[in-house]
Amino acid sequence: MIELYELCGANPAHLFSPFCWRVRMALVHKGLSFRSNPTCFTDKELIAFSGQGKVPVIRDGDTVVYDSLAIFAYLDSQYPEQPLLGDAVASARAKAIDALCTSVLRGGLLKMVLLRVLQASDPKDHAYFRSTREAFFSDTLENVDNPEQGQALLEAAWPVLAAVLKTQPYFDGDEPAGADYLVFGYFMWAYTLGIAPWQDNAPVNDWFNRLLNIYEAQRGTVVRTA
Ligand SMILES: N[C@@H](CCC(=O)N[C@@H](CS)C(=O)NCC(=O)O)C(=O)O
C-alpha cells in the first residue's frame, strides 16, 4: 500500500497543505489505497528517508517520491489507468499550469491563511513556523497577514478561472484530473483553514463544490478550522 506523508495541524486529522491536498486528490482519482502518515512541520525525522524536508512524500514499495508534480508524474507512470496528466508533454504543461495558478492564487491566499496556519499547527511547530516564515518574508507574520488585502488580490483571480469554467465543468474538460487538483490544492489551503473567499463567484464556487463532493463521497467530511 502507498504511504502518504502529509502535513497536519495539532489535530492529526486537520490537513491543510495545498500540495498535500493535490496528492490526496490524485490518489483518490486513481482509486489507489493509501495510508496517511500525518506529519507536523517539525517531524523531520519521519520524512528523513526521502532525503529532504518537505511534504508531500510518498513511499510505494521501494520507491520514494516527493514534490506534488513529481508524484503526479510517478503515479501516471506506474498506474496509467485514470491519467492525471496524460501524454508525454503533460508534465511540462503541468508546470506551466502550476506556475500560473500559483501566480494568481498564492499571494492573496497567503495573506488570508498565514495566521490561521499558525493557530492550527501543533504548538511544538509554532516557533519553527514563525521563524522560518518570518525569515522568508523578512517581516512578522502579523504584518504579512492581511485578509482584506488578500481578498482584494484574489478578486483578480476569479474571472481568470471563471473564464475557463464557464465553458467546461473542469479545467481538464468534462471530468476532473491533474490540472483541477493543482488548483484545488490551493483552494483546500483556505477551505480547511475555515475560509472560502471565492463564494461569490458562481462558476468557481460550483467547480470547488463539485470536487469537494466527489472527495467527501469517498473519504468523508473534511476537517476544517471551526
Ligand atoms: N513544491 C513542493 C512544495 C512542498 C511544500 O512546500 N510543502 C510544505 C507544506 S505546504 C512543507 O513541507 N513545508 C515544510 C517546512 O516548512 O518545513 C510540492 O509541490 O510538493
Automatic annotation (TrEMBL):
InterPro entries: Glutathione-S-Trfase_C_sf, Glutathione_S-Trfase, Glutathione_S-Trfase_N, GST_UstS-like_C, Thioredoxin-like_sf. Gene3D superfamilies: 1.20.1050.10, Glutaredoxin. This is GST N-terminal domain-containing protein. It comes from Pokkaliibacter plantistimulans. Pfam families: GST_C_7, GST_N_3. It comes from the Bacteria. Residues 7-83 form the GST N-terminal domain.
